[in-house]
């Protein structure tokens, strides 16, 4: 008799929320786009109940704005809010990295190396979706040794807000190689135990992405109003 296989069990709202989240982060569902529960129920071939539960979860994550009349829309951040998201990343991530570096072991370095290798493959294959997930995994691995569970929970929520903009930044021509190089240098500084250089580079890494994105998005939105 064949042995039973273990599989990840997810509720229907979980499955739908995961799919909708990826559609938002990838830009398939654009900022400000209205989401109709009836249309989603038809698209996923389910009742409206799991759709509403999925949207509630995304609302709690700050990715959609759920209204009382069974409608929702993808959250559209203002330019100032986008800048604030990346400022929060600097505050949280630099602190975590500085705390993590003295505690990092060879296992942590190996984990980061493995993710970097996969990221570089995604660069070469032009797989922005995969790169986005791996980018989150890489930064998480860099900070894991800090052992700051509550801070990581806060960072996870902030990263949900920034992920779609990070993917947009990767799609801007000529930005991939610099991101690729900086990720490798962050790990090298950590291996060397150079906390100050690592913190400075991470600050530059995030703030440079912020300044470029704010400029690009401001131009796009100005063009939309013409």
- Percent in strands: under 5%
Largest sheet: 3 strands, antiparallel
Q: Which range best describes the helical content: under 10%, 10-25%, 25-40%, 40-55%, 55-70% or over 70%?
A: over 70%
Structural class: mainly alpha
Q: Count all strands and give the number.
A: 3
Biggest sheet strand order reads: 1-3-2
Alpha carbon gap, first and last residue: 68 Å
Treating each run of at least 4 consecutive H or I residues as one helix, how many helices?
9
Shape call: globular
Mean pLDDT, all residues: 88
Instruction: Return residue spans where pLDDT drops below 50 for at least 5 consecutive residues.
Output: none
Task: Note the run of SSEs as H and E.
Answer: HEHHEEHHHHHH
Cα Rg: 19 Å
């Amino acid at each position: 008799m064949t042995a039973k296989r273990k599989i990840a069990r997810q509720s229907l709202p979980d499955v739908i929320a995961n799919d909708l989240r990826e559609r938002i982060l990838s830009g398939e569902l654009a900022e400000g786009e209205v989401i109709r529960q009836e249309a989603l129920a038809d698209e996923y071939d389910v009742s409206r109940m799991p759709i509403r539960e999925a949207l509630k979860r995304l609302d709690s994550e700050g990715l959609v704005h759920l209204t009382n009349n069974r409608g929702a829309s993808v959250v559209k951040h203002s330019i100032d809010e986008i800048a604030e998201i990346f400022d929060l990343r600097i505050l949280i991530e630099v602190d975590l990295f500085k705390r993590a570096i003295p505690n990092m072991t060879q296992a942590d370095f190996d984990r980061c190396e493995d993710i970097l290798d996969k990221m570089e493959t995604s660069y070469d294959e032009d797989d922005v979706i995969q790169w986005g997930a791996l980018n989150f995994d890489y930064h998480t691995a860099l900070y894991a040794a800090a052992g700051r569970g509550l801070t990581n929970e806060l960072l996870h929520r902030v990263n949900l807000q920034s992920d779609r903009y990070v993917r947009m930044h990767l799609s801007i021509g000529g930005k991939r190689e610099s991101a690729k190089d900086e990720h490798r240098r962050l790990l090298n500084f950590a291996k060397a135990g150079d906390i100050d250089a690592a913190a400075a580079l991470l600050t530059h890494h995030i703030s440079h992405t912020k300044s470029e994105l704010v400029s690009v998005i401001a131009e796009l939105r100005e063009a939309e109003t013409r």
